Amino acid sequence: MAYDPITRNLTDGQIVIKDGTTTPLSVTIDCDEGDLSIVVHKDRKVIMNRGDLDHVREGVSVPVDLSFTVMFSEFYTDEASSYTPYELLMQQGDATSAASTRADSAEAYCVDVEFTITNPDADTGEKDELIKVDDFFVEEITFTEGDEYNTLAVSGRAMITSPTITKEAR
């Protein structure tokens, strides 16, 4: 039997944003359309020997870049609170009680961001994909309201060197 891959993307999933409290405050965004970009940087130092390439060494750790834009129809929370993704990402409004995922209170406020891509054909036995970016801090956020749809564009960095990517059963 030939393998027939099923294309899965952000529209097959959702984004969950969590703070660092013991029972995390979280908000979920079901994605209608959008994009996701995770850039992992590797600093490398090329060592020369008398003008010729000799070898390469590991450089310093570099944080992961994360950006996503989602078209959505509705925000909802996993709790009785009324905070929005914007408020949880920015620790504002109804989410002022949110705590950073970083233990040091002197550091910038960070959250964990999870992207779950649901397998659209559960009969195949394939698992859902989970991409987790811990300790993410926002550098730019744009909310655009429109007649046909709303969009949320978020970009920033995470205090990790690579995301955690797993497959999980529902």
Question: What this model shows, in words?
Answer:
By secondary structure, this protein is mainly β. The chain contains 1 helix and 11 strands; from the N terminus they run βββββββαββββ. The protein has a single domain (10-168), classed as Pnp Oxidase, Chain A. It has one helix spanning 85-90, and strands at 13-18, 26-30, 33-39, 44-49, 52-58, 64-72, 75-77, 111-117, 128-144, 150-158, 164-168.
Quickly count the domains: 1
The CATH topology assignment is Pnp Oxidase, Chain A
What gap, in angstroms, lies between the N and C termini? 25 Å
Q: Given this structure, which CATH class is correct? A: Mainly Beta
> Describe the biggest sheet?
9 strands, antiparallel
Oligomer state equals single chain
> Which percent bin holds the helix content?
under 10%
Radius of gyration: 19 Å
CATH architecture: Roll
Mean pLDDT score, rounded?
85
List low-pLDDT spans: none
Helix count, DSSP H or I runs of 4 or more residues: 1
Sheet-strand content, in percent, reads over 45%
